[in-house]
Amino acid sequence: MSNWHVNLLTLFPEMFPGTLGMSLSGKALDKDIWSYNSINIRDFSSGVHKSVDDTPFGGGAGMVMRADIIESALLSIPNQGRKIYMSPRGKTLNQNMAQELANEKVLTILCGRYEGVDQRVLDAHNFEEVSIGDYVLSGGEPAAIILMDSCIRLLSGVMGNNTTPDEESFSNDLLEYPHYTKPAKWVDSNGVERIVPQILTSGHHKNIEKWRLEQSEDITKRNRPDLWHKYIAEKP
Ligand code: SAM
After folding, report:
1. Centre of ligand 1 from the C-alpha of residue 117, in Å
2. How many CA atoms lie within 13 A of 34 on its CB side?
3. Is the pLDDT of residue 1 over 80?
Protein backbone atom coordinates (compact mmCIF):
# COMPACT_ATOMS: atom_id res chain seq x y z
CA MET A 1 0.00 0.00 0.00
CA SER A 2 1.16 3.54 -0.79
CA ASN A 3 1.76 6.27 1.82
CA TRP A 4 -1.69 7.78 1.16
CA HIS A 5 -4.53 5.34 0.62
CA VAL A 6 -8.25 6.00 0.15
CA ASN A 7 -11.03 3.42 0.51
CA LEU A 8 -14.10 4.58 -1.40
CA LEU A 9 -17.55 3.33 -0.44
CA THR A 10 -19.72 3.96 -3.48
CA LEU A 11 -22.56 2.70 -5.65
CA PHE A 12 -20.52 3.71 -8.71
CA PRO A 13 -17.00 2.25 -8.39
CA GLU A 14 -16.42 2.86 -12.10
CA MET A 15 -16.38 6.63 -11.39
CA PHE A 16 -12.88 6.20 -9.90
CA PRO A 17 -10.14 7.13 -10.51
CA GLY A 18 -11.97 9.35 -13.08
CA THR A 19 -10.05 12.56 -13.56
CA LEU A 20 -7.63 11.49 -10.82
CA GLY A 21 -6.23 8.96 -13.28
CA MET A 22 -4.93 11.81 -15.49
CA SER A 23 -2.21 14.44 -15.41
CA LEU A 24 -0.28 14.94 -12.14
CA SER A 25 -2.56 12.81 -9.97
CA GLY A 26 -2.56 10.05 -12.61
CA LYS A 27 1.25 9.99 -12.75
CA ALA A 28 1.35 9.91 -8.94
CA LEU A 29 -1.10 6.98 -8.98
CA ASP A 30 1.16 5.12 -11.45
CA LYS A 31 4.14 5.79 -9.18
CA ASP A 32 2.18 4.47 -6.16
CA ILE A 33 2.50 7.80 -4.33
CA TRP A 34 -1.18 7.31 -3.56
CA SER A 35 -3.59 4.42 -4.04
CA TYR A 36 -7.31 3.72 -3.77
CA ASN A 37 -9.75 0.90 -3.48
CA SER A 38 -13.40 1.22 -4.59
CA ILE A 39 -15.89 -0.88 -2.65
CA ASN A 40 -19.28 -1.35 -4.28
CA ILE A 41 -21.86 -0.95 -1.51
CA ARG A 42 -24.36 -2.90 -3.63
CA ASP A 43 -22.21 -6.05 -3.28
CA PHE A 44 -23.26 -6.10 0.40
CA SER A 45 -26.99 -6.16 -0.23
CA SER A 46 -28.48 -9.61 0.24
CA GLY A 47 -31.86 -8.91 -1.43
CA VAL A 48 -32.81 -10.48 -4.77
CA HIS A 49 -32.90 -7.01 -6.34
CA LYS A 50 -29.68 -5.93 -4.62
CA SER A 51 -31.39 -2.78 -3.42
CA VAL A 52 -29.46 -0.57 -1.02
CA ASP A 53 -32.06 2.07 -0.16
CA ASP A 54 -35.50 2.37 1.40
CA THR A 55 -38.18 4.98 2.10
CA PRO A 56 -37.50 7.52 4.87
CA PHE A 57 -39.18 7.10 8.27
CA GLY A 58 -41.45 10.09 8.89
CA GLY A 59 -42.29 10.36 5.19
CA GLY A 60 -40.95 12.77 2.63
CA ALA A 61 -39.49 12.56 -0.83
CA GLY A 62 -36.72 10.30 -2.01
CA MET A 63 -34.93 7.26 -0.71
CA VAL A 64 -32.30 6.77 1.98
CA MET A 65 -29.27 4.45 1.83
CA ARG A 66 -29.55 1.70 4.45
CA ALA A 67 -27.30 1.69 7.53
CA ASP A 68 -26.91 -2.11 7.74
CA ILE A 69 -25.70 -2.44 4.14
CA ILE A 70 -23.26 0.47 4.42
CA GLU A 71 -21.91 -0.97 7.68
CA SER A 72 -21.29 -4.40 6.07
CA ALA A 73 -19.38 -2.66 3.26
CA LEU A 74 -17.40 -0.61 5.79
CA LEU A 75 -16.50 -3.63 7.91
CA SER A 76 -15.05 -5.38 4.85
CA ILE A 77 -12.20 -2.81 4.95
CA PRO A 78 -9.38 -3.99 7.21
CA ASN A 79 -7.71 -0.59 7.67
CA GLN A 80 -10.33 2.19 7.62
CA GLY A 81 -8.29 5.15 8.88
CA ARG A 82 -10.17 8.45 9.14
CA LYS A 83 -13.80 8.10 8.06
CA ILE A 84 -15.42 10.82 5.98
CA TYR A 85 -18.94 11.14 4.63
CA MET A 86 -19.23 13.56 1.69
CA SER A 87 -22.23 15.70 2.60
CA PRO A 88 -23.54 19.20 1.81
CA ARG A 89 -24.20 19.76 5.51
CA GLY A 90 -20.58 18.97 6.49
CA LYS A 91 -17.67 21.24 7.37
CA THR A 92 -16.59 22.99 4.17
CA LEU A 93 -13.37 21.74 2.59
CA ASN A 94 -10.59 24.32 2.56
CA GLN A 95 -6.83 24.33 2.02
CA ASN A 96 -6.07 23.70 5.72
CA MET A 97 -8.38 20.70 5.75
CA ALA A 98 -6.82 19.40 2.51
CA GLN A 99 -3.37 19.63 4.13
CA GLU A 100 -4.62 17.91 7.28
CA LEU A 101 -6.16 15.04 5.27
CA ALA A 102 -3.06 14.76 3.07
CA ASN A 103 -1.11 14.15 6.30
CA GLU A 104 -3.24 11.08 7.11
CA LYS A 105 -2.13 7.65 5.89
CA VAL A 106 -5.57 6.13 5.23
CA LEU A 107 -9.00 7.64 4.59
CA THR A 108 -12.33 5.92 4.03
CA ILE A 109 -14.76 8.09 2.09
CA LEU A 110 -18.48 7.29 1.96
CA CYS A 111 -20.21 8.66 -1.14
CA GLY A 112 -23.94 9.18 -0.70
CA ARG A 113 -26.69 8.98 -3.34
CA TYR A 114 -30.45 9.60 -3.27
CA GLU A 115 -31.45 11.73 -0.22
CA GLY A 116 -28.35 10.58 1.65
CA VAL A 117 -27.60 7.86 4.20
CA ASP A 118 -29.28 6.60 7.39
CA GLN A 119 -27.87 8.77 10.20
CA ARG A 120 -27.27 5.76 12.45
CA VAL A 121 -24.35 4.41 10.43
CA LEU A 122 -22.64 7.82 10.60
CA ASP A 123 -23.13 7.93 14.38
CA ALA A 124 -22.12 4.32 14.96
CA HIS A 125 -18.82 4.71 13.11
CA ASN A 126 -17.94 8.35 13.82
CA PHE A 127 -17.95 9.60 10.25
CA GLU A 128 -16.87 13.24 9.84
CA GLU A 129 -19.05 15.09 7.35
CA VAL A 130 -17.25 17.14 4.69
CA SER A 131 -18.87 19.40 2.11
CA ILE A 132 -17.19 20.79 -1.00
CA GLY A 133 -19.42 23.89 -1.04
CA ASP A 134 -22.87 25.33 -0.62
CA TYR A 135 -24.64 23.54 -3.45
CA VAL A 136 -26.18 20.08 -3.83
CA LEU A 137 -24.68 17.45 -6.13
CA SER A 138 -26.49 14.29 -7.15
CA GLY A 139 -23.87 12.10 -5.50
CA GLY A 140 -20.78 12.08 -3.31
CA GLU A 141 -18.40 10.68 -5.96
CA PRO A 142 -17.52 13.98 -7.70
CA ALA A 143 -17.14 15.56 -4.25
CA ALA A 144 -14.75 12.77 -3.19
CA ILE A 145 -12.72 13.30 -6.38
CA ILE A 146 -12.39 17.02 -5.60
CA LEU A 147 -11.38 16.35 -2.01
CA MET A 148 -8.81 13.76 -3.12
CA ASP A 149 -7.41 16.04 -5.85
CA SER A 150 -6.84 18.83 -3.32
CA CYS A 151 -4.90 16.38 -1.10
CA ILE A 152 -2.95 14.50 -3.79
CA ARG A 153 -1.21 17.62 -5.12
CA LEU A 154 0.11 18.21 -1.59
CA LEU A 155 1.68 14.76 -1.29
CA SER A 156 5.42 14.65 -1.42
CA GLY A 157 6.75 13.95 -4.93
CA VAL A 158 3.56 14.93 -6.81
CA MET A 159 4.25 18.50 -7.92
CA GLY A 160 8.05 18.42 -8.15
CA ASN A 161 10.02 21.58 -7.44
CA ASN A 162 8.16 23.87 -9.82
CA THR A 163 5.16 24.71 -7.68
CA THR A 164 5.37 25.96 -4.13
CA PRO A 165 2.11 25.41 -2.21
CA ASP A 166 2.97 28.20 0.24
CA GLU A 167 2.75 30.75 -2.60
CA GLU A 168 -0.62 29.52 -3.87
CA SER A 169 -4.09 30.88 -3.17
CA PHE A 170 -5.28 30.50 0.45
CA SER A 171 -1.80 30.27 1.94
CA ASN A 172 -1.56 33.19 4.42
CA ASP A 173 -5.27 33.86 3.71
CA LEU A 174 -4.46 35.55 0.38
CA LEU A 175 -5.48 34.73 -3.18
CA GLU A 176 -2.72 34.38 -5.74
CA TYR A 177 -1.34 37.26 -7.83
CA PRO A 178 -1.86 37.23 -11.66
CA HIS A 179 0.49 35.29 -13.93
CA TYR A 180 1.92 36.24 -17.35
CA THR A 181 4.05 34.37 -19.89
CA LYS A 182 5.54 34.91 -23.38
CA PRO A 183 4.99 36.75 -25.66
CA ALA A 184 5.58 39.93 -23.61
CA LYS A 185 3.53 41.93 -26.12
CA TRP A 186 0.25 40.43 -27.39
CA VAL A 187 -2.47 41.95 -29.57
CA ASP A 188 -5.88 40.49 -28.76
CA SER A 189 -8.65 39.77 -31.31
CA ASN A 190 -10.02 43.33 -30.84
CA GLY A 191 -6.66 44.83 -31.85
CA VAL A 192 -5.82 45.90 -28.29
CA GLU A 193 -2.13 45.66 -27.49
CA ARG A 194 -1.65 43.99 -24.12
CA ILE A 195 1.74 44.33 -22.52
CA VAL A 196 3.03 42.36 -19.53
CA PRO A 197 3.43 44.64 -16.45
CA GLN A 198 6.88 46.16 -16.87
CA ILE A 199 8.00 45.26 -13.37
CA LEU A 200 7.88 41.54 -14.23
CA THR A 201 10.44 41.98 -17.00
CA SER A 202 12.67 44.29 -14.91
CA GLY A 203 14.61 41.44 -13.28
CA HIS A 204 14.35 43.29 -9.93
CA HIS A 205 13.32 40.46 -7.62
CA LYS A 206 12.56 42.54 -4.52
CA ASN A 207 10.25 44.87 -6.47
CA ILE A 208 8.57 41.90 -8.19
CA GLU A 209 7.89 40.31 -4.80
CA LYS A 210 6.42 43.58 -3.51
CA TRP A 211 4.23 43.99 -6.62
CA ARG A 212 2.94 40.41 -6.33
CA LEU A 213 2.01 40.88 -2.69
CA GLU A 214 0.16 44.11 -3.52
CA GLN A 215 -1.71 42.33 -6.32
CA SER A 216 -2.61 39.43 -4.01
CA GLU A 217 -3.90 41.84 -1.39
CA ASP A 218 -5.91 43.78 -3.95
CA ILE A 219 -7.53 40.66 -5.47
CA THR A 220 -8.33 39.23 -2.05
CA LYS A 221 -9.88 42.50 -0.89
CA ARG A 222 -12.08 42.64 -4.01
CA ASN A 223 -13.06 38.98 -4.38
CA ARG A 224 -13.01 37.60 -0.84
CA PRO A 225 -13.73 40.17 1.87
CA ASP A 226 -14.04 37.30 4.38
CA LEU A 227 -10.41 36.21 3.75
CA TRP A 228 -9.25 39.82 3.63
CA HIS A 229 -10.58 40.56 7.13
CA LYS A 230 -8.87 37.41 8.44
CA TYR A 231 -5.60 38.41 6.77
CA ILE A 232 -5.73 41.95 8.17
CA ALA A 233 -6.52 40.66 11.65
CA GLU A 234 -3.61 38.20 11.60
CA LYS A 235 -1.06 40.41 9.80
CA PRO A 236 1.78 41.39 12.15
N1 SAM B 1 -30.75 15.47 0.76
C2 SAM B 1 -29.42 15.94 0.90
C3 SAM B 1 -29.42 17.35 1.46
O4 SAM B 1 -30.34 18.12 1.17
O5 SAM B 1 -28.48 17.71 2.20
C6 SAM B 1 -28.70 15.95 -0.45
C7 SAM B 1 -28.40 14.58 -0.96
S8 SAM B 1 -27.49 14.61 -2.46
C9 SAM B 1 -28.75 14.58 -3.64
C10 SAM B 1 -26.81 13.00 -2.56
C11 SAM B 1 -25.39 12.87 -2.05
O12 SAM B 1 -24.52 13.71 -2.78
C13 SAM B 1 -25.15 13.22 -0.61
O14 SAM B 1 -25.48 12.15 0.25
C15 SAM B 1 -23.67 13.51 -0.59
O16 SAM B 1 -22.90 12.32 -0.43
C17 SAM B 1 -23.41 14.08 -1.97
N18 SAM B 1 -23.29 15.56 -2.00
C19 SAM B 1 -24.19 16.42 -2.54
N20 SAM B 1 -23.77 17.69 -2.42
C21 SAM B 1 -22.58 17.65 -1.80
C22 SAM B 1 -21.65 18.65 -1.38
N23 SAM B 1 -21.88 19.94 -1.57
N24 SAM B 1 -20.52 18.25 -0.77
C25 SAM B 1 -20.27 16.95 -0.56
N26 SAM B 1 -21.13 15.95 -0.92
C27 SAM B 1 -22.26 16.29 -1.53
Report:
1. 10
2. 32
3. no
pLDDT at residue 171, as a whole number = 81
- How many angstroms separate the CA atoms of 88 and 112, rounded? 10
Query: Mutation test of ligand 1: which of 8, 12, 87 has the most ligand atoms closer than 8 Å to its C-beta?
Result: 87
In ligand 1, the atom with minimum distance to the C-alpha of 133 is: 23
CA distances (Å), origin 36, targets 6, 22, 151, 194: 5, 14, 13, 45
Q: Which residues contact residue 126 at a Cβ distance below 8 angstroms, ignoring those fewer than 6 apart?
A: 83
Per-residue model confidence as pLDDT tens digits over 181-194: 999 999 999 999 99
Question: What domains are defined for the chain?
Answer: 4-152 (3.40.1280.10), 165-234 (1.10.1270.20)
- For residue range 65-85, list pLDDT tens digits in order: 999 999 999 999 999 999 999
Q: pLDDT per residue over 193-214, tens digit each?
A: 999 999 999 999 999 999 999 9
**CA-closest residue to ligand 1 atom 21:** 88
- Give the Å distances, CA to CA, from 3 to 12, 33, 43: 25, 6, 27
Find the angle CA(64)-CA(67)-CA(72) to the nearest 5 degrees.
130
Question: How is the beta sheet containing 35-40 ordered, strand by strand?
Answer: 35-40, 5-10, 106-111, 82-92, 128-131
CA 67 – CA 118 distance, rounded (Å): 5
Neighbours of 183 (CB within 10 A): 10
Identity of residue 174? L
Taking the CA of residue 138 as reference, the ligand 1 atom at the shortest distance is: 9
Q: Which residues line ligand 1 (CB under 6 A)?
A: 86-89, 111-113, 115-116, 131-133, 135-140, 143
